[in-house]
Amino acid sequence: MTPVRGGRLAAAAVAVLAAAGCGILPPQPGPVPTDLVPSSVPGPAPTATGNLSPDGFDVAQRMAVRIRNVGCNSLSTGSGFALDATTLITNRHVVADSADLQLSTYDGRDIAATAASTAALADLAIVRTVDELPAFPELAEADPQPGDAVTVVGYPQGGQLTVTSGRVMGATTDPLNENLGEVLVTDAPVEPGSSGSAVLDTQGRVIGVVYAKNADDMSFIVPVGTLREMLADESAFTPSPTCSG
Could you tell me which residues belong to the region Disordered (predicted)? Predict the structure, then answer.
């Protein structure tokens, strides 16, 4: 994986976004700024199917889940995706301090959550469901490479399903979880509520999970290799504490 090095993020590189589709990579961006926030700046209007085929988009929308976190003193929204028939993946900060997790699918169906577990090492969480989820994708065997096309599928601002596309720009040390190691940097736009969205390759396989972006519109994802390693470690996830209100 090509590391992200140099000075400030070049404005030209940041502005490329989904337009960098000609096979020539923009200049590698510099170090990631420290002013990171969870998916907090609106992005442009999404494409119809991103980099996915029509069949790939159909599976993507069926496995994406809208998450509404009703806490003791707050209400927030996020996204997630099915890992199997009764398990979904999202971000730790999406389910934190929850009194009630409300899940819904692309067809408007409400799904009851039974339990949530969060990882200490990365911004990841597992949510178990009572009812079966409509579909679940395949996890890619390997992390993507710089220049690979990616598509983000989620529910920004808790609204309708959106699809945005871009390319992998490189990798950098996770600026929010220093012990995690490298995370991927992509120019695929994300918006408030996109946290926990699946990042897919052109075959519709999951290659990562959105968890943050910076003020320069660079999005950060936990790579699928890290997700696989943590899912294989039974001690990586512990029950998520709920609010006490």
Answer: 31-54
- Give the domain ranges of the chain: 11-51+137-229, 65-136
Quick: pLDDT tens for 138-178. 999 999 999 999 999 999 888 888 899 999 999 998 877 76
- Mean pLDDT, rounded, for 82-90: 96
Q: What are phi and psi of 54, to 5 degrees?
A: -55, -40
What CATH homologous superfamily does 11-51+137-229 map to? Trypsin-like serine proteases (2.40.10.10)
pLDDT tens for each residue of 116-135: 999 988 999 999 999 999 99
Which amino acid, residue 218? Answer: M
Secondary structure class of 54 (helix, strand, coil): helix
How many residues in total does the chain contain?
245
* Superfamily of the domain at 65-136: Trypsin-like serine proteases (2.40.10.10)
Sort strands 87-90 and 75-84 into parallel, antiparallel or unpaired. Answer: antiparallel
**Do 11-51+137-229 and 65-136 have matching folds?**
yes
Q: Is 230 left (phi over 0), alpha (psi -120 to 50) or beta?
A: alpha
Model pTM score: 0.77
- Tens digit of pLDDT for each residue in 93-117? 999 888 899 999 988 899 999 999 9
Name the band, by pLDDT with cuts 50, 70 and 90, for residue 54. confident
In the Cβ-directed half-sphere of 203, how many Cα atoms lie within 13 Å? 8
Query: In sequence order, what are the residues at sequence separation of 6 or more whose Cβ sits closer than 8 angstroms to the Cβ of residue 112?
Result: 103, 129, 130, 131
Alpha-carbon dihedral angle through residues 198, 204, 206, 209, given to the nearest 10 degrees: -20
